[in-house]
## 1
Amino acid sequence: MMAEPDGPEDRLRRFATIWSRAVFPVTSTSSTRPEFEGQLLPLARRLSEALRARAFDQEEAKAVGAALVGAHCTDPEALSRTLDCVDAYLVLYCGHDGDPEHLRARSARLQHAMAAGFAQALRERTLAEQEAIAQAALKAQGVVAQALHASEARFRAVFEGAAIGIGIADLDGNVLQVNGALTRMFGLTDQKLRSRNAKEWTHPDDAPQTWRLYEELVRGQREHYHVEKAFYRPDGTVLWTNLTVSLLRDADGAPRYQLALMEDTTERRLLNLRLRYEATHDALTGLPNRSFFFERLEKALSAGPGQRFGLCYLDLDGFKTVNDSLGHAAGDRLLVEVADRLQACATAPGEMVARLGGDEFVALTTGPDTAHEVDELAGRIMNALLAPISIDGRELTVRGSIGIVEGPAGERSPAEVLRSADITMYRAKSAGGNRFELADPEADARVITRHGLTTALPAALERGEFFIEYQPLVRLGDGTVRGAEALVRWLHPQHGVLGPDRFIPLAEHTGLIVPLGRWVLEQSVRQAREWRERHGGADAAGPLRINVNLSPCQLNHPGLVQDTVDILERAGVAPDALCLEVTESALIGADDDLLKPLRRLAEMGVDIALDDFGTGYSNLANLRRLPVSVLKLDRSFTQSMQQFPADPVDLKIVEGIVSLAHSLDLAVTVEGVETGAQAEQLRILGCDTAQGWYYARPGPPDRLHELALVDASG
């Protein structure tokens, strides 16, 4: 595996090396390959800076494309290889510390601008060459005028042997002479060409100034002009030329003839069009690509007052299954068919469909009434996906999830619109898929905040932004404090104190829950030791104990047992001072491999509590096989006991659970105790310990020590 370069300059040089190796074989240069690499390095640096610039500057990328022509990279293959290198390696080597999705979109736009700059520079180079010919023709006007009597043979040789088309006409436009190159370009005989008048050669694509320049020349008001002009051939095809027309004067300086020099640029123009198409269209489906779509979206969002836009962001449901089961070739054919159907849905003015990549497509509509039109467009797309698609003899059902964003132009950037559409699409997918949802600013804000918290989690742990609060566990029989549950909090710099429900699921998703859980366990065990030392060690009623929650991810981590042993030994705390709480849902259907670490911990003397008991619908008979010593009854069973009289059904349920637990030699802890009547009822029912706001809210460790001292003095 190749080692990654150390720093930005190393990565930049690596990119320049790859670029030079790809392009050098098709470059007409006398330089060596290392010398050629030295020429490309500053161009690579300009691309890198343009990639990471705050605002997109297409002129910088155009300048790089033009510089390629200056470095003799004029072969179309050189441009093709350059675009391939930029597409594959620019973001990889020069896009460090940036949003990959944004950088890939920026890279695609840079490629398009480079291709445009390359084509423009190549054209200007050709024009310069033609201009040189025109200047030579102007300088030779006297020679041409005298060629009738002094150098007719030499002029005829140049005239007939020229590689470009040459024609001479009078000032009325009547063609007098043409050379062989011109007849071949038009596909006409000499006689046919000379029977034409220059004024007849109009074309719909003529630039507005073309015929104005012609009239000025034949009136003697200008000596020459240069334009890009199209001509119709007899077979209906179009001939594109670089046309230079010069005025020929007689010995007295009076205008006599017009001299036309034509270079056939049809193939070059087709190449430029192909490069433009390839830079703006998806190679697989032929739809506009991400770069082209962003151009259209930017234009739609910058439209004038009263204009609106509507965007549908489509992601196919279950497309990965098709790739995994039938292969990527089948997946590609499926995407092509989907693209064809989507294209048929967006045929009205102001509508377009593009492929962003993978199985993600977008449809855009613009105009004054997009609120209604975008809903209809989404409906057409959903209907278009209803019919099965036949791939390799299999009928595949295709479904999709669509996020819709609609609004007035000028209020949001393209990136903000696409982000909102992406978020909304995933909301539709989370709701079961095969549906479309409308963007909701509040839902967007929640997702953005969630993403921000997720990305901030690792640094927050390193910066020490987490802290622990402790909620007392009270013995119902005598009201003494027997320990506490450790509850982690996040002191976020912007959002303030966040409860575990805000960030524990994110830590689970990212895997950070393992180091975070290890830190919580270490801090809690150290606090338990301090409590024991301040409380005078173990008393007759037993030592203070700390309860720490374990997530399902931690249960599956191979280092759970060893980490726990190491933390207890370093703190000098006996295993019986620790109780690990595991949710009932995490142990439903657990096999022996999952239970083995818990059994080892229980054998060491660590208590295992089954948290939120009663919410997971587990089989009560399974309690016998679980290595638990405590049941923590979920608060939903005891909420009715806050009022008098309590629901008799709830009383019977709790009484039955307590009886069953005690028969299995399990202690019962109750959460969410908020009133004295509730606490008394639970004591009568035989519950062992309780926690809740009635006793104390979660707080700093010193509060528990004070409560324990009050119990001891009482």
## 2
Amino acid sequence: MAKAGDEDSNRGRAVAPAAAKQDLIGTALAPSMFAALLSRLFNWSRSGVGPRLLAAVLLFSSVVTLTLTALQLYLDYDREVGLIETRLDEIGRSTTGSLGESLWNLDQNLLKLQLDGILRLPDIRAAEVREIADRPNPIRLAIGEPSTRSVVTRDYPLKTNVQGTAREIGVLHVEATLTDVYQHLLNRALVILASQAAKTFLVSLFIIYMFHLLVTRHLVAIAEFVSKYSLARPPPPLRLERRPPYDADELDKVIDAFNAMCANLQRAYGELREANANLERDLKVRQRAEEDARASEERFRDYAETASDWFWETGPDHRFTYISDRAGVFGMDNKALIGKRRTDAASGSDAEPEKWHAHMAMLDRHEPFRKFEYRGRDTTGRMHHFSVNGQPIFAADGSFMGYRGSATDLTEQHETEERLRQSQKMDAIGQLTGGVAHDFNNVLTVITGTIEIIQEGLADKPEFAAIAQLIDDAAARGAEITSQLLTFARRQPLEPREIDVNALVIETAKLLRPILGAHIEIVTRLADDAWSAMADPSQLSSAIVNLAVNARDAMPGGGKLTIETANRELDDTDAAGDGDAMRGAFVMVAVADTGHGIPADIREHVFEPFFTTKGVGRGTGLGLSMVYGFAKQTGGTVAVESEEGRGTVMRLFLPRSKGEAPVRTAPVHALDTARGHETILVVEDDPLVQGYVIARLGSLGYRTLVAGDGASALVLVDQGAKFDLLFTDIIMPGGMNGRELADAVRLRRPGARVLYTSGYTDDAIVHEGHLDPGVALLRKPYRKSKLSQKIREVLAGEPPA
């Protein structure tokens, strides 16, 4: 078909919608059409395959040009350098003899003339003769301009014959420059690249023009024909305006195939119209299909309006006649429910008689209902929360046929809400306990310090010293309780580091044997590939001890305590402990016992402070609270699994360390009371604590300056008070905390040393439960030995930047 159109070259117009209206080869030579041709090429190049072809040609040509240019430049460089090397060799062969003779005769004028001759050679930049002689001021003659860049150097020995023996008397040093070589290569590269770029650009334009002439303008014609094609009013077959080819090419074959496809479409369109006519004649079949479709649509609409997880139907007596198979996903036996009422499948319906009476009355009134919630058990006995929606069904005559609806399992939502309430309750308790511990630590600081003073004065009175020791023990017990409260409230500043969990468990297990007693068997199951964890080792050891002590109390008649470590990868679907979803890599430390277990009704209270099932005087109820607070503050969690009569497993999840080599902590040694003579600026708002600190520092030999708040301390600093250490509480009245005071002092006195103290830390020096780097903190309550040791550590340490 395309050939027929091409052979008629004398036609005055195009038959098909063509991209070009005239012969571009002929008009390209016409000067009057050159500007129009450039404009059309520019507009065409902004889209289509032409720009991509141009880019490919330019890219390939550029790569080939650069490669060939680089090869040519390398060959030129090698040739030029070879010429210089040959010239230097010729200098060595032709001049060393005469230069040696002149040097032996000490004829410097002749040497200079000879060196000038060498310097006049092409590319020679500098030449030098150095005499080798054991006498003062040997001859050294140099001409030219020596350089350290782009040069080729040679050293030639200068010899003479003395009594028939060759003797080396000097050295000829020659430098040849490569600057002219590089300049020549640069000029040649610019010429090659410019010529190749021009050639590549012209060739690319010619290729693009020929591609447009032979291909793309015909593709545009085909696209325009397709966009206007109509089956209802088909146009004549497609023809392209082309010169007659000798043989059919690819475009001719495309046009033939396209016209054949259009003919097939026309035949198919005719057959389709005939089929539609036959379908319209079969009216009864069509009406029956429409009625079935309408019934299916109504059922689908009912289901869609009640949108849920599974579907159900009941008869006029409200008994189930159908339950979809999806109910089995939620543990329900749909076949067993057929023939039962909803009240028969519900649990606890007797406890809510009014609710169920109102629901059954609504069913009897044949009213739709939504979001009716009740509880029921699945085949395993687990309690579920359901929400159901229902729509009454009526026959064509208006008679009631039953209900159709859907049901949704809300169990997970109810459990999530319960976990949220539990978490909020624990946070509120944590804030309360943290505040109580703050004030109590200030009091304990004075009590423990004062008891130490009293014990020193009662050393010769045993009967009173014993009473003082009882007070000291009680104060220590109070300090332990406040520490546990702060840990539960997540206000205990941690010092996490990379630790070997297996090594820590082994060391802690050694401590547990005398604590638990001989009637408890201790077994460790440690993973060989256990990761290192990021945690405070002392707090982790205390947590394991607390879990072990609770396990011991659950086995009064003896039993087995198992401590296990393992690696765990948790995702968002894993919930542990208080129900928080955890994600990431964790090291698990599990403590399991074979005791009596935890009853289900109190299991959710075990982490609350002061909650205990032990008798009066047996524990404070803070052990598990401390474990809970430590785990959450560390970035992990704790999970409880217990079965009455079979035992309990407490699983502690700690975040995996990012490092590879855990740091082993050094053993703790007893602190010695260290004395000093420096001046310390004490900033403390509590008068009792302030008086105690001043007295203690004085007994240790220090001089003190005192301020009750940050503003008063800054006044002393601005007045020029001299001190060696700022010892400040963190939480103080007046709008300035200890960290802000320390920053203000360091602005005035760079390098000032600071020691913080507090019984309760906020975000001033602790972030995400961890002390800021470089911060020194003395926790309240503290004793004299700890105070003196910490002061000496800060004073002896490196000054802050």
## 3
Amino acid sequence: MKLKAALFSFSVFAYTGFTAQNIQNNPGSNHGNRFEQLGTILPTPNIYRTASGAPGQGYWQNKADYDITAYLDEDKRNLKGSETITYYNNSPDDLDYIWLQLDENEQSNVKNAGFAFPSTLPASSNDQQLKATELPEKDNGYGVNLEKVTDASGNPLKYTVNKTMMRIDLPKVLKKGEKLVFKIEWNYNIPNRIKMGGRGGYENFAEDGNDLYTMTQWYPRMCVYSDFHGWQNHQFTGRGEFALVFGNFKVSMNVPADHIVGGTGECKNYEQVLTSDQMSRYRKAESAAEPVEIVTLDEAKKAEKNHSKQRKTWNFEAHDVRDFAWTSSRKFVWDGMRVTIPENNNKVMAMSFYPKESYALYRKYSTKAVAHTIKTYSEFTIPYPYPVAQSVEAANGMEYPMICFNYGRTEKDGTYSEATKNGMLGVVIHEVGHNFFPMIINSDERQWSWMDEGLNTFTEYLTEERWDNKFPSKRGPAWTITDYMKLPKDQLEPIMSNSENIVQFGPNAYSKPATGLNILRETIMGRELFDKAFKTYAKRWAFKHPEPADFFRTMEDASGEDLDWFWRGWFYGTDPVDIAIDKVTIAAPDLNTPPREAKETKYKVDKPLQNSFEDISKIRNREDKNIKFYADQDKDLQDFYYRYDRGQEKVDTEKEYTLKTDAGIPLDAKDKEKFKNLTGYQIDFVNKGGLVMPIILEFTFEDGSKLYDKSSAQIWRQNEQKVSKTYYFDKKIKSIQLDPMRETADIDTSNNVWSSSGTETPVSKFQLFKQKQGEGPVRGGASGKVNPMQAGKKS
């Protein structure tokens, strides 16, 4: 709500007053440079990435297509795979080697990235924690075992494995526009992800003796080669996630015959792997507006009791995706429904896979949450382009194209708490939302976790709000980040930090960027400008590889807002927001003092104004005969001062000139009645935290009414430590509340309130008079001085 008529907001009054005199009185007031442009902090624009934040005319990215067969050995808990990769070099560079990721080596005690982490002696420990700190006596048996690496004809290729990265040396240079076809055969022992951690592996259900497999980072996959980084071959330590290449996948998974499989993309042989009843239910689900059980709870319970020795092969295809993940278990209940994306009329199969241990929650909510998420994200970013979106209950959260693994177990009797339900919904929305960030808007997670986690968490917050206006979101609202922002500086890093360097990873990569975007949307830019710019970023970089500068530049380019101060403070800095009301000064109008009288000033002119020193440029310009001065050629410019300066005319030094100023116009009785109750309030603010933000005020008056006012963060531009603002009201203020809706992430709200005692006496009076018709208002920065040489001249 904006200020109403009760606030007398004359431009000469409600003004912060930063003239040259103010700057003189505050030497060094701008030493923080919080409003300086990012300039060379951002990479130089080029033909690949423009200054507007859009892909340039020379933008390129490489591509990788995969044809994979996989064999899941449940008895040995081993995965055996064979893949043919077709790699397209669309770069302008010749490549004599390529890099692939072997992420599963992170589970090995001898092949992992070798990143050491400090440890201290705990007060208590369990056997698994003790085992994790044991010095390895031998290979634990995990990690990728490479069997063959050959070209398309079966000839061996030379390769080197460096921990979680693999380099293949090419027999001949891969030139621009060429493609490379090669093959890899491998196997690895599937880890128990519940005990060992990690994103992929199996979970064993001891009560029924079955496993639930989440097959992720399971195949050797291409690293990204880009215009901004070259090869992204940073080691995988388990935290910084993935930088991946878009391509098409054909994947065949051979699994026990009683397993149900879900995966990235569309299954091409449901009729061969499902029973006739299951196939009939799937057809029904394809047009259903409510989730239909394709594999029922009774069927899942029955399958748990008998471990088939037969095998089935499930065939999947996916196009324009950066990765492929899948899940397999005989424990799965499977339901689905059709959801239509309005923006592109895409008819998507929303589906969920879950064991009986989460049936009561997932049957009721999961698939509906999937549908709600892709529809809401489509509204805020780009229309969901894929044919499938799936949620799998696997006791933890992780995302892949068209499929994600989520949390949400009930108690044994099927009951659950509100906290469990909300936690499950939040994780499903978050992980399904990752289809957009980074599965489509494909940022480099290994380097910039915030570009997928932060942007996704922000959009998750918008989606949770659309699910339930009272949803207890933990990340997104400004007030929820303040505990993190209060931490000592040695526990904080800028958002713009590499994933491996962050101490408080969750708040830094998820919460702080999400909160910053929400502050931009609600408080700084406004929803209309923000939403348009955010959609522009998503549209520009869909199916491409954006970097931070591309996001920052697009948000400004598409909105017309200079946000460098915000990126500098919120993303590159660690200062918190703590703006305080330091002092309130009260003044009353003097309605009886006569206004200023008319005034005449006499003065003489002896010579025109000149620079006190003849600089080198003027001297050299006069000596240069090739320079023709415009004033020498234009007769209209050759006035008295021009001729006088060149000795062509003399001045009467005895002649007096007169400078006149008008008298003020006194207030009449009507004016005095109007302004008799007027009170002036000067509010002094102090920036204690360091991070600048808009100043948002709620005024509460003695009659109980309220008014609101907001000044943009630009109010701090000329003094980043202190600023004042003056208001004039025709009724008395009872209290002033700074940031009443807690929308700026202010870490200390105790200094955000001023209350009147009701007995304050105005400390000063201000003269009030009417403005002469035709005169403009006083503007900041004007010195008020008159050039003596111009005085007395007619305009």
## 4
Amino acid sequence: MQLVIVESPAKAKTIEKYLGGDFHVLASYGHIRDLPPKDGSVDPDNGFAMSWENYGDKGKQLKAIADEAKKADRLILATDPDREGEAISWHVQEVLRAKKALPQKVDRVTFNAITKAAVTEAMAQPRALDEDLIDAYRARRALDYLVGFTLSPVLWRKLPGAKSAGRVQSVALRLVVEREREIESFTPQEYWSVAAEMEQGGQSFTARLVRWKGEKIDRLTIGREGDAMAAKADVEAGRFTVDKVETKPLTRNPPPPFTTSTLQQEAARKLGFSASHTMRIAQQLYEDGTITYMRTDGVQMDGSAISAARKAIADRYDGGYLPEKPRQYQTKAKNAQEAHEAIRPTEFSRDKAGSGDHARLYDLIFKRALASQMASARLERTTIDMVDGSGSHTLRATGQVVIFPGFLALYEEGRDDSDDDDSKLLPRLAEGDAPAKKQVSAEQHFTQPPPRYSEASLVKRLEELGIGRPSTYASTLQVLKDRDYVRVEKNRFFAEESGRLVTAFLERFFERYVSYDFTAGLEDELDDISGGRAQWQQVLEAFWRDFKPKTAEVMEQKPSDITAELDKFLEPMLFPPKADGSNPRACPMCGDGQLSLRGGRFGAFIACSNYPECKYTRKFGQPGGKEGEDTGPEVLGQHPETGQDIVRKSGRFGPYIEMGEGKEAKRGSIPKDLPDGELTLDWAVKLLSLPREVGLHPETGKPIVANIGRFGPYLLHDGKYGRLSSTAEIFEVGMNSAVVKLAEAANRGGRGAAREPLKLLGAHPRTEAEIKVMEGRYGPYVTDGTTNATLPKTVTPDALTLDEAAQLIDAKAASAPPKKGKKKAPAKKAAGAKKDAGAKKDAGAKKETGAKKPAAKKAPAKTRAASA
């Protein structure tokens, strides 16, 4: 018997169909072990020796693999054809060797597509494990561990509120923060454009003023309204005739097939997918055998695939759409990762695959790959110059016409910032023609700051700088979101205060390690290891020799000294010069105090030097007193019964109201559904009056109370809860409505927890049990009625598909320990079940995660070293 090991059960099921009865295929469910998240897992003093630990939830699967391996004559490691796949195979081999279950014959096979032909061909060409790729994996894993577990503790102790730092994560964050600074420091500049609406032969077109009074007009030439109106008057007064018609042929070649990076970018632009969602869907398409491997820097396609693409083009279009010779592409990446083929369909005869997001992403991959072998598009660009009678003023109209669409008939690449001025059609005009002038306009404009990064543009920028590798971008960006260093609004990254502060700290004290050149250079060295051109311990030693002393030096400094240095470093941002020349650090409340950066338990903030006499504060990240800053306590008015002042304040947990002082003071949080601008004295009085007793329950005679809690407005009766929809409902709900809501909550499953499904996904493809998405105490989960599987943080209930849910349930069922409580079960079973209920890890998770500070008053928490 021959045992084949792959990563996922879906892949195992597909491959087993292609192989004969002598083969048994098992899944490892991703990585089976990792460096324990504790000090000492990597020993720099002992040649960077690593102590690996099996994942607690993989015990059952590892036992199954070991049992089968003991009976096998040959072990075939068929994990993915990249560095991570090589690492999983190596880990499986090492674990089996330790268990003395390793067959005498061990082979490694790789295939770029899960098709019968590709798998059969790979089985006929086995090889040994690639030691260079394994060394590269160990180097990256050790490096990411050392950075995370050395630098993150410095952050925790010297920068309150910081969560983690990582090799690529911190540099990606720096890009987002620097863009935020550019936007804040940007000064808009006014400019005007003058254009005329013209008509010839019944067709309208627009011509812009490009020369005025004999002088060339650039974008910012006309900077005042008076000049714009004068130019407009001159155009209105002039009679313009065509002076020159210039036509140039243009050729546009199709883009190459997708790489990992370009797929993430285009899916973000055209489909609105996050990088992590794109990679998850692509992984499933690959495992279903519909596309080739999706982690690649290569743009080339196999010769047989090119032939199949050309045949599909010939079948779909006429001969003009097929170039005479096949197109050959070469990657521009400095170190193309393992020289894989581009992402393409496994069969060009299949133009559709899957449903929902799977179908949309497959369609994108199919069209891009097919278009890459199509004929070039032929266009014609026309420029028309029209001059007035004096020869002093010139209008210009531009446009282009598609003569032959070529590949554009199927696919056109998206852009982050499109400008289609040149794509407008123009009427036929000849020299001497005098088009009719319908109207002239002068429009005011202002220069715009650079746009915030989208996922597509940030991935593109990281790739341009040579930072990280495309296979890690999705997890890198996810770490930034999970750490709350950034937020995403309308598909754009905004730097949060915590992210800005961490970046400032790293720029000031670890500038070298967040510099773009250093990070890119380190990536090159790691690629040299995978190519056999460098020794992995030597690369780590060179890095560690400088990095360790630097972290020790910063660790010795007092937090107050760190804050003082950051205050100086951030002065241009936090306290920019004022237009009137006054002191930007002067306290706006007391007048004679000086503002400076302070550190507290919950992060950094700006405070007055006259504290506690002056209690002025504002949030970090509100530079120079811009709109929205906290200007200190605000008296809303006096309570109508007590006569005491009700004051609006800002605390570490957000805005709140307070009445009274000291221990006797009464406070209340300002609800999120009640913006600060709508907080009136009446509302403040209402909030301070909580909790509100609605009345006595007609059946129990016990009180029903309405109040605001940690999770929002609620009803409470006899220890049971019911939800309210808004803060306003707390003061409006009556007895009848309250009784109904409490009864509905009780019928939904006790403990006040709602039991209605968030989403019905359909029948499980194997068991046919109905799969639902439910809201649980610790977040959403999927269930088939027997097995519950928590949704990863990267997956939202709305985006979850039936296939994804089924895989989560199957993975959880496969890793679950034996159930307790069976009458005849031996005692050891219960103990084993308890042991196996360890920390859960995503079966296919890669290592781009950040170290997170352990929570207080808990059992020793497992933290993960940052590798992002």
